[in-house]
């Protein structure tokens, strides 16, 4: 016990400094060093006689720091991917808004394309879509009127929106404008 206390008192701050020099996070460095001392204390009997406890502890601290840095690297990579995705979404929004031509918003072409896309839907899906979007009926009302389940109505609406999103992807800004200002 006395040897452990002496080891802790002599090396704790040095090990924290070592870990912090890589982690650049004092609290994380202290946690790793404390965990390493605890690990050493709990496993010194199982490990047999350790000739050089300072080297054993430093090796444990090194490995825990490596694990922490690898985990940080994964988090940073994930954050970069999210940032890249958000940047691409922003770029797409800027591009579509710049491409938006107000004179085309009111053109018969866009209205005709919307009608064609809706008419391309399977019959049941089209009926449900029209009732929901153009007649203002709720999913429950549609289900009751068509003698089907709300889940089935939801399935058809999801299908309709997916098909329309693909068919009208280049005209979505114009369609949104028309829907709000009709």
Task: Outline the secondary-structure elements.
Layout: H1 2-23, H2 26-43, H3 53-99, H4 102-105, H5 108-119, H6 123-133, H7 139-145, H8 150-167, H9 172-181
Helix pairs in contact: 1-2, 1-3, 2-3, 6-8, 7-8
Summarize the structure.
The chain is mostly helical. It has nine helices and no strands.
Question: Distance between termini?
Answer: 83 Å
Weakly predicted, low-confidence segments: none
Count every helix, treating DSSP H or I runs of 4 or more residues as helices.
Answer: 9
Strand content: under 5%
Which outline best applies? elongated
Order of helices and strands: HHHHHHHHH
Helix content: over 70%
Helix/strand class: mainly alpha
Fold and architecture overview:
- The protein is mainly alpha-helical and 182 residues long.
- It is 82% helix and 0% strand.
- The protein contains nine helices and no strands.
- α1 (2-23) packs parallel to α3 (53-99) and α2 packs across α3 (53-99).
- The longest helix is centred in the middle third of the chain and has 47 residues, at 53-99.
- 10% of the residues are buried.
